[in-house]
Amino acid sequence: MSTPTQDGRRAASPAVTMAAAVLDVLMEARRGPLGPSEIARRLGVAKSSVANVCTAMAQAGFVRRDGTGYVLGQRLAELGAAYLDRVDEIRVFHDVCEERLGSPEETLQLAVLGPDLDVAHMAQRDGTVRIRLVSDTGRYLPATCTATGKALLASLPPNELDARLASGPLPAVTPHSIVDPDGLRADLDLTRTRGWAVDDQELIEGVVCLGVAVPAARGGPRYAVSFTLLSAWATDERRDRLGHQLLKLAAAMADRLGHGGHSDRA
What we know:
- By secondary structure, the chain is of the alpha+beta class.
- The chain folds into 2 domains: 14-77, Winged helix-like DNA-binding domain superfamily/Winged helix DNA-binding domain (Arc Repressor Mutant, subunit A); 87-256, CATH 3.30.450.40.
- The chain is 43% helix and 17% strand.
- Strand 6 and strand 7 form a beta hairpin.
- Helix 1 packs across helix 3 (47-60) and helix 2 crosses helix 3 (47-60).
- It is globular.
- The N and C termini lie far apart (58 Å).
- The model is unreliable at 261-266 (pLDDT under 50).
């Protein structure tokens, strides 16, 4: 069987291309296992081809059987962790946090802007006071409800921000989430003026996050860093102090990555 690539060309290795397509389908499913018939239907290929590929990937640990279907396997998490260990931004994040902050009480996170109105947290450094978060590493969250997401949205050109906001309604994760586009735009204006974004219990009730975009050499920021703390501790003085620490941290990361991220607020 000949499997085309996304650009329509004949694949150099049809089996590998098919395996990648199956993994994409399983990743997008998220809610539960999919059987070979359903995977084949979504891909528009023969069920027998999918069954053979799934059997081989299960033996390698890339997928695992769950009832009559398949879900992503543990081996993918191991490969993902190995990849993340080699990503410059993640290594620099950990190095700069260690050098500049040591062991703060607050949890630190590094996030990347995804498609539409999504943000994914790629790395985390737990503070000395542990806070239970909902943001598993690599899992997409609504950018409009997170400090990292709002910091990155505030850095977008107006036309790109408009396009993203037109992708659908704003999610209401908690009663504090901003669901009105005009209200979000006002919040992003404040973010630009202040220098950092604030998630005031918009993703998790009782939890406040502050976020700053990491300056980039070209193409605009893709990453942001954040502090997470309990709302009971988030006094105006503490927010101001942590916001300025994040500005310095983001600028130091940009300098280390060669982006020249100097900040006049730092």
